[in-house]
């Protein structure tokens, strides 16, 4: 019988409760990290920022300033809007 890895089971459980697909990352000490999609980052990008924070024991510190994140998000949205096809409805 197939036994799912602990990280997969935890991610599936969290995905069921949040309704979002969550990429998991297991740490050597047995800890698990998951993330979710936000307006600023996709779940995988957020996970890549959360991993060093978890390893360093940092909780409430932003690795990237919220001001920088907003600027990047605004730029991404402007570029996305520029390449959206125009339709009769929008």
Structure description:
- With 90 residues, the chain is mostly helical.
- Helices cover 49% and strands 7% of the residues.
- It contains 3 helices and 2 strands; from the N terminus they run αββαα.
- It has a two-stranded antiparallel sheet with strand order 1-2.
- Strand 1 and strand 2 (32-34) form a beta hairpin.
- The longest helix has 17 residues, at 66-82.
- It is flat.
- It starts with 5 loop residues before the first helix and ends in an 8-residue tail after the last helix.
- The mean pLDDT is 80.
How are the SSEs placed, and which strands pair?
Blueprint: H1 6-18, E1 24-26, E2 32-34, H2 43-56, H3 66-82
Antiparallel strand pairs: 1-2
Give average pLDDT, whole number: 80
Number of helices: 3
Residues in β-strands, percent: 5-15%
How many beta-strand elements?
A: 2
Structure described in brief:
With 90 residues, the protein is mostly helical.
Descriptive tags:
two-stranded antiparallel ribbon; 90 residues; mainly alpha
